[in-house]
Amino acid sequence: MVNAELKAFIASEIGHTPADPRLFEAAFTHSSATGSSYERLEFLGDRVLGVCIARLLYERYPNEAEGQLSHRFNQLVARETCGEIGRELGLPAVIRLGKQARDDGANWSDNVVGDVVEALIGALFVDAGLDRAEALVRRLWQPLVDEQRKAPKHPKSALQELAAAKALKNPNYELVRRSGAQHQPRFTVKVTIATLGEAEGEGSSKQEAETAAAEALLEKLQ
């Protein structure tokens, strides 16, 4: 049964009274804690989020090409974005984790908070249908969509274009180290463009670290 704190959170922040409270109990439970974890709901919620964001962008930018919409989409569904939204909602206070994971601060990480956001969307989809889940996505993501005055260019694409413009080889990405707990890994990646420079970046996945490294090098070269 959903405890009083979690029930109050769902009512106040999501505006929903669960028909099946077990779905939401699972959505807030990390695999390090006892009980059903959020992993299956996160899988589902990730797909629901994608459909909702795609439709929102399709409607909002009727004159943009597929490539521009994809740049916007990738930024909006990124793990960091989901983590940011989850922290603004206050999820770290209600996520259920095992003692070690909580001591490690996993309830504040982009990986865990982002997963719970997607699991919450998945739970709402199962419990109340697509319209209700989409209403939540639009409410939480609309401010971020409004801030995207033009379609962002992915840092790795921008760096590759810069190298090409200078007739240089493509950027080379190298994994420097992997650290952190198994449930909260940190990756450090170095990107190098011969004769132009190098920079390092960190992230909770290799892809995130590569993006951070590309951003760092672009800042150096600007």
From TrEMBL:
Keyword rRNA-binding: yes
Domain RNase III: 7-129
Binding site for Mg(2+): 42, 115, 118
Cofactor(s) the record lists: Mg(2+)
Enzyme Commission number(s) from the entry: 3.1.26.3
Main location: cytoplasm
Cellular component annotations (GO), alphabetically ordered: cytoplasm
Catalyzed reaction equations: Endonucleolytic cleavage to 5'-phosphomonoester
Gene3D superfamilies in the cross-refs: 3.30.160.20, Ribonuclease III domain
InterPro entries reported for this sequence: dsRBD_dom (IPR014720), RNase_III (IPR011907), RNase_III_dom (IPR000999), RNase_III_sf (IPR036389)
Any one GO BP annotation for this protein: rRNA processing
Residue stretches making up the DRBM domain: 154-222
Keywords: Cytoplasm, Endonuclease, Hydrolase, Magnesium, Metal-binding, mRNA processing, Nuclease, RNA-binding, rRNA processing, rRNA-binding, tRNA processing
Active site: 46, 118
Domain of life: Bacteria
Similarity remark: Belongs to the ribonuclease III family.
Assembly: Homodimer.
NCBIfam families per record: RNaseIII
Protein function: Digests double-stranded RNA. Involved in the processing of primary rRNA transcript to yield the immediate precursors to the large and small rRNAs (23S and 16S). Processes some mRNAs, and tRNAs when they are encoded in the rRNA operon. Processes pre-crRNA and tracrRNA of type II CRISPR loci if present in the organism.
Name of protein: Ribonuclease 3
